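Design request, C-alpha cells follow.
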C-alpha cells in the first residue's frame, strides 16, 4: 500500500510539472508563430480589436488546457485519496486500526470533527489542508502563465525560451522572498512560537506572497499586451534603437511598488505579532485568575526541597571534587579504563554496556567496584558493604 501511494505521489508531481510547462508553451506558441509568418500584421489591418484577439486567445487556451488540467486535478485528488486509504490502516491519532473509512477521515479533516470522540493528529490535518489549498493556487498559476508567456512569446527575439522564462518569473521571485521571510523569522526568534501558530502563519505568508506575485504578473502582462501589442507586432519594421536601460520614471514606479509591498507585509506581520501577544497576555491573565479563585498557586518555592548541608552533600566531598577536577589524574585513569571496558551486565532483561551512564537505570555497583579494585571490595553484596569502600 505504501509503495502504491509513493508511486502515485511521484506520478502526480510529474503531471503537475508537465502541465505547468504545457500551459506556458501553448500560451507563448500561438502569438510567436503568427508574428513570424506575418499573420498578426494581416489581422491588425482588419477591424478586429486587440481585446477581441485577447478573448480569442483565452478561449483557445482554455480549450487546450481543459484535458491537462482535469488530469492534474484528478491525479492530485487520487494521491490524497490514497493517503486517506493508507490512514485507515494506521490512523494518525488515538484511533484503532481498521475501524474507520477513508471518507470519514476526509470529512473529519474538512469539518474538524472528531472520530469516535477522538481527534486526529494536528500535523496530519494541517498537511492535508495544505495539499487541498494547492489546487486553487495551481489554477491561479496556470492563468498567470497564460498572461506572462503570451507577452514574452510576442516580445522575445527567441520565443522558444519564453516558456522557461515564464516559469522562472512565476516561481523564482516568490521562493526567494519567502526564503527571506523565513530568515527574518528565524533571526527575530519568532520560530519559538508554538507550531499550531507558527505553521499556519508560514502557510498564510506563502499563499499571500504567491497570490500577490501572480496578481502583479497578470496585471503587468495584461497591461503590456493592451498598450504595446500593436507597437510590438509592427516594431520589427522600424529601425528605432533598442533601449536596454529603463528610464527614471520606470525605476521610480518599481521602487514605490516594492516599498508599498514591503510595507504591507511589515504591517501584516506586526499586526499578527501584536494580536498574538494580546491574546497570549489575556489568556495568561485569565488562567492566573482562575487559579487564584481555586486557591492554587504557580509559585514553586514551597515545593522545592531545602538546600543540603555541606556535611551531608555527596557532591561537596573532597574525593568527588578531586575526580571532577581537570587536573585530576585519578579521573583520567578511570575514564581511560572505562573506555576500554566491554563488559555487559543484564539489567531489565537487556545487555547494557557499563559506559552507558545516560540510561538512568540501576547498575550492579559491586561488580564495578571489584572490576576497578578487587582487593578493596568485601565479599558481601549488600548495599552498605559495597558503598563504604567505593565512597
Amino acid at each position: 500500500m505504501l509503495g502504491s501511494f509513493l508511486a502515485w505521489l511521484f506520478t502526480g508531481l510529474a503531471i503537475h510539472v508537465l502541465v505547468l510547462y504545457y500551459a506556458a508553451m501553448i500560451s507563448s506558441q500561438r502569438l510567436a508563430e503568427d508574428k513570424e509568418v506575418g499573420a498578426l500584421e494581416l489581422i491588425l489591418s482588419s477591424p478586429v480589436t486587440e481585446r477581441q484577439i485577447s478573448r480569442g486567445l483565452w478561449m483557445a487556451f482554455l480549450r487546450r488546457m481543459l484535458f491537462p488540467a482535469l488530469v492534474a486535478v484528478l491525479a492530485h485528488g487520487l494521491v490524497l485519496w490514497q493517503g486517506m486509504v493508507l490512514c485507515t490502516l494506521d490512523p494518525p491519532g488515538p484511533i484503532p486500526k481498521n475501524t474507520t473509512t477513508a471518507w470519514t477521515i476526509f470529512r473529519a479533516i474538512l469539518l474538524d470533527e472528531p472520530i469516535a470522540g477522538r481527534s486526529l493528529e494536528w500535523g496530519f490535518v494541517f498537511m492535508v489542508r495544505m495539499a487541498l489549498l494547492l489546487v486553487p493556487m495551481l489554477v491561479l498559476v496556470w492563468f498567470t502563465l497564460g498572461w506572462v508567456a503570451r507577452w514574452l512569446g510576442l516580445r522575445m527575439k527567441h520565443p522558444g525560451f519564453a516558456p522557461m522564462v515564464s516559469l522562472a518569473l512565476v516561481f523564482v521571485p516568490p521562493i526567494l522572498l519567502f526564503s527571506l521571510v523565513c530568515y527574518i523569522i528565524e533571526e527575530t526568534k519568532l520560530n519559538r512560537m508554538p507550531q499550531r501558530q507558527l505553521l499556519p502563519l508560514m502557510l498564510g505568508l506563502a499563499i499571500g506572497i504567491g497570490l500577490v506575485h501572480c496578481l502583479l504578473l497578470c496585471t503587468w502582462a495584461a497591461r503590456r499586451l493592451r498598450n504595446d501589442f500593436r507597437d510590438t507586432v509592427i516594431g520589427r519594421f522600424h529601425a528605432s534603437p533598442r533601449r536596454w536601460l529603463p528610464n527614471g520614471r520606470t525605476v521610480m514606479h518599481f521602487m514605490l511598488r516594492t516599498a508599498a509591498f514591503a510595507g504591507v507585509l511589515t504591517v501584516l506581520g506586526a499586526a499578527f505579532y501584536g494580536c498574538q501577544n494580546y491574546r497570549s497576555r489575556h489568556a495568561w491573565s485569565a488562567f492566573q485568575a482562575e487559579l487564584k479563585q481555586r486557591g492554587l498557586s504557580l509559585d514553586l518555592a514551597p515545593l522545592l526541597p531545602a538546600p543540603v548541608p555541606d556535611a551531608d552533600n555527596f557532591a561537596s566531598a573532597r574525593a568527588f571534587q578531586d575526580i571532577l577536577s581537570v587536573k585530576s589524574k585519578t579521573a583520567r585513569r578511570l575514564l581511560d579504563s572505562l573506555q576500554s571496558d566491554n563488559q555487559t551486565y543484564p539489567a531489565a532483561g537487556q545487555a547494557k554496556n557499563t559506559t552507558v551512564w545516560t540510561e538512568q537505570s540501576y547498575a550492579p555497583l559491586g561488580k564495578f567496584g571489584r572490576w576497578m579494585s578487587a582487593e578493596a571490595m568485601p565479599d558481601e553484596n549488600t548495599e552498605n558493604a559495597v558503598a563504604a569502600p567505593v565512597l
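Comment from the thread starter after seeing the answer: thanks! The chain has three domains: 2-237, 248-298, 316-390.
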